[in-house]
Inverse folding.
């Protein structure tokens, strides 16, 4: 047998150089099977959670199954007790009390359950050319042309004149109809094709087709619209004016599915940021008897800047922590100042077709595990909280100790564009915060792509964070 002796250079390189590896080359067969099985549950969650309200309700349903009860203000919770607090049906905080006093801080995971979508305007319904349509206003950053000629479903609530709340969900069941935003046929698109891509479909062209059969009565005009109102009235007891007090959201009707011959990836609407929401949710639901109080907040409004009373730029989270702190005779800000937060949000995976926008040494890679992002922002790091070296050092040691496969990632090349997460708002409260998440292809498109192993490693990272001894 020939002996292979390593050279001094080889040994030195082994000791000193980084060697990033695909998670599939590191994980055992059993662990890959666990990841695949985790992703089956994740796909179910995605299909049940197309909007922030539905994700919130699904999180509460799963929490109750896991033994959580509804938060009672003023109650002193013992270590190990589990409870949830719902903010206006659109965001939820899930907590497991730790053994350590709250004064030592909370282990917080924050993810958002809103995703880019298309909302109805307040006076949406109209008829033109004997077709009935809805006027819309898009929500979050979208490439508008991507949202035409695909099946869409309608979700949300309508508050009727009598104050009754009606829940709407059309287009998800196999037997349901779906809806569509039309686009111009290529044969007549000579002028449209000369528009710049951002103008290919304009905001006021995102009109949703919902009907074409007229109500049979010669005495009335706008018969197609009337027929639609008749159907809506029969189904929901609403009139046209009830749209003014509705929140109706149009989202892709696709189901979450495996992608690739090797089934290594998941395609789904809304993975930004429900892939991290599910990981943070699952980790807190499975957490028992933690040292530090474990908390997951699933928040709303991130995609439009976290403003509004269900977004993390509002005070609902610090108020909740205040209430908890009071029961232990400590100030809320003492708890907050000692809190460490993983801001769980997606990052841009390097796309081989568009690799010129990423700087490969510092971009997140599909299949390389959960990604930690020290800073986001734009231009000269504008708008980011920029995690400290100490915070990065903390998560790095924790991940390595817990066998989590992780990478780092910056959102694109310097000056290529940019973006932000809720991290900055939490850092403003005086927490130590770092972004953690899953690399995504086609972020903000109607169908986004993630790697199953990355989604699983994100869950493992959150679990390691909550369960650290
Ligand atoms: Mn996000
Ligand atoms: Mn986003």
């Amino acid at each position: 047998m020939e002996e292979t002796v390593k050279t001094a250079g080889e040994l030195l390189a082994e000791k000193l150089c980084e060697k990033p590896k695909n998670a599939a080359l590191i994980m055992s067969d059993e662990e890959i099977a666990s990841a695949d099985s985790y992703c089956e549950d994740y796909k179910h969650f995605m299909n049940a959670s197309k909007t922030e309200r539905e994700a919130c309700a699904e999180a509460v349903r799963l929490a109750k199954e896991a033994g959580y009860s509804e938060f009672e203000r003023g109650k002193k919770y013992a270590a190990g007790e589990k409870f949830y607090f719902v903010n206006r049906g659109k965001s939820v905080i899930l907590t497991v009390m730790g053994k350590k006093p709250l004064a030592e801080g909370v282990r917080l995971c924050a993810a958002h359950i809103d995703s880019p979508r298309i909302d109805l305007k307040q006076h949406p319904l109209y008829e033109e050319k004997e077709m009935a349509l809805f006027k819309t206003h898009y929500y979050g950053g979208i490439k508008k042309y991507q949202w035409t000629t695909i099946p869409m479903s309608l979700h949300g609530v309508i508050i009727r004149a009598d104050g009754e709340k009606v829940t709407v969900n059309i287009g998800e069941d196999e037997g349901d109809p779906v809806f569509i935003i039309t686009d111009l046929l290529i044969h007549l698109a000579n002028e449209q094709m000369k528009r710049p891509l951002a103008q290919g479909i304009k905001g006021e062209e995102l009109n949703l087709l919902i009907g074409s059969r007229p109500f049979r009565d010669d005495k009335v005009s706008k018969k197609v619209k009337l027929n639609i109102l008749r159907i809506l009235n029969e189904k929901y007891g609403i009139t046209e004016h009830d749209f003014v007090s509705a929140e109706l959201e149009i989202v892709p009707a696709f189901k979450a599915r495996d992608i690739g011959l090797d089934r290594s990836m998941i395609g789904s609407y809304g993975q930004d940021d429900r892939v991290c929401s599910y990981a943070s949710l699952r980790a807190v639901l499975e957490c028992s008897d933690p040292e530090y109080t474990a908390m997951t907040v699933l928040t709303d409004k991130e995609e439009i800047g976290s403003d509004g009373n269900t977004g993390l730029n509002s005070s609902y989270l610090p108020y909740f922590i205040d209430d908890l702190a009071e029961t232990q005779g400590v100030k809320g800000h003492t708890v907050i100042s000692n809190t460490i937060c993983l801001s769980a949000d997606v990052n841009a995976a390097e796309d081989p077709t568009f690799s010129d926008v990423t700087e490969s040494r510092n971009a997140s890679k599909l299949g390389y595990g959960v990604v930690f992002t020290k800073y986001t922002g734009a231009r000269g790091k504008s708008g980011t909280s920029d995690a400290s070296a100490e915070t990065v050092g903390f998560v790095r040691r924790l991940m390595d100790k817990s066998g989590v496969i992780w990478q780092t990632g910056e959102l694109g090349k310097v000056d290529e564009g940019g973006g932000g997460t809720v991290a900055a708002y939490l850092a403003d409260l005086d927490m130590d915060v770092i972004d953690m998440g899953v690399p995504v292809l086609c972020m903000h498109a109607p169908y986004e792509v993630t790697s199953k192993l990355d989604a699983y490693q994100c869950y493992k990272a959150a679990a390691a964070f909550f369960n650290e001894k």
Summary: The mean pLDDT is 97. The two ends are 47 Å apart (CA to CA). The CA atoms of residues 76 and 327 lie 5 Å apart.
